[in-house]
Amino acid sequence: MNARAAVSRPPGRGAKGLPSSEDKPGVAEWQLRLYVAGQTPKSTAAFDNLKRVCEEHLAGRYTIEVVDLLVNPRLAAGDQILAVPTLVRKFPEPIRKIIGDLSNEERVLVGLDVQPLR
């Protein structure tokens, strides 16, 4: 599949948490949603770490939607978000969640089911 990667930037980087228009031509194989609370160091680190992991392991096959719960806190209920930052893998199913700044690459890859547990 030759889907293009669409990345929404975290708050403060010019995005409002909505998917990029590059997302429209086709459905990406990996649909990820990152919940943050403003532009905190942890939120920024989580986005940067996620983007790096996706570019290395899912290049061209993913979308990232950033949801700032300070802007719209009601969106947390849909995915039952209790802590931030939280990454939710919406697709492929089943839905998976990872809490934290995503700095442990192996944990992120295993959590997203990109690579098996060693």
What does this structure look like?
There is one protein chain. The chain is of the alpha/beta class and 118 residues long. The chain has a domain at 1-11 and 28-93: Glutaredoxin (3-Layer(aba) Sandwich). The protein contains 3 helices and 5 strands; from the N terminus they run ββαβαββα. It has helices spanning 41-57, 75-78, 105-111, and strands at residues 6-7, 30-36, 62-68, 86-91, 96-99. The chain has a 5-stranded mixed beta sheet with strand order 1-3-2-4-5, with helices on one face. The N and C termini lie far apart (27 Å). Residues 1-24 have low confidence and may be disordered.
Quick tags:
118 residues; Glutaredoxin; five-stranded mixed beta sheet; disordered N terminus
For the record, the CATH class of the domain at 1-11 and 28-93 is Alpha Beta
User: N-to-C SSE series?
Assistant: EEHEHEEH
Cα-based radius of gyration, to the nearest Å: 13 Å
Rounded mean pLDDT score: 80
Percent in strands: 15-25%
Poorly predicted regions are 1-24
Order of strands in the sheet with most strands: 1-3-2-4-5
Level of helix content? Answer: 10-25%
Biggest sheet, open or closed, and with what strands and sense? 5 strands, mixed
Question: Treating each run of at least 4 consecutive H or I residues as one helix, how many helices?
Answer: 3
CATH architecture call of the domain at 1-11 and 28-93: 3-Layer(aba) Sandwich
Distance between the termini: 27 Å
CATH topology of the domain at 1-11 and 28-93: Glutaredoxin
Count of extended strands: 5
- CATH homolog superfamily of the domain at 1-11 and 28-93: Glutaredoxin
Structural class: alpha/beta
- Shape by Cα distribution: globular
